[in-house]
Q: What sequence folds into this?
């Protein structure tokens, strides 16, 4: 694979996450869709000053988006970023605040 592929841009931990999620959603979504979702969730956190929690945040956000994709009647329509007020809102808000804190510049 070339240097410009998604796999080359992801650290090993996130590549393992991508592989695990691809296997989990094998019957529902293509591997390319899963890789794109993981990459999209990783991108805003790629320059985090404290990288310890980045894989956890990426996994949580990726699973949330993948579940949304699977439940939608039109999987090609863009996903909403804001919470829909359902269960898990406080966790989503806390993770969003943590992501902002991790990505703030010095």
A:
């Amino acid at each position: 694979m070339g240097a410009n592929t998604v796999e080359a841009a992801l650290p090993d931990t996130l590549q393992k996450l991508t592989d695990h999620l691809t296997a989990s959603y094998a019957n529902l979504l293509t591997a390319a869709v899963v890789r794109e979702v993981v990459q999209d969730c990783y991108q805003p956190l790629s320059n985090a000053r404290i990288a310890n929690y980045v894989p956890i945040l990426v996994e949580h956000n990726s699973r949330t988006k993948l579940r949304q994709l699977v439940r939608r009647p039109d999987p090609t329509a863009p996903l909403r970023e804001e919470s829909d007020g359902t269960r898990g809102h406080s966790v989503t808000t806390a993770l969003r605040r943590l992501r902002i804190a991790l990505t703030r510049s010095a």
About this structure: Residues 6-103 form one domain. The longest helix spans residues 54-71.
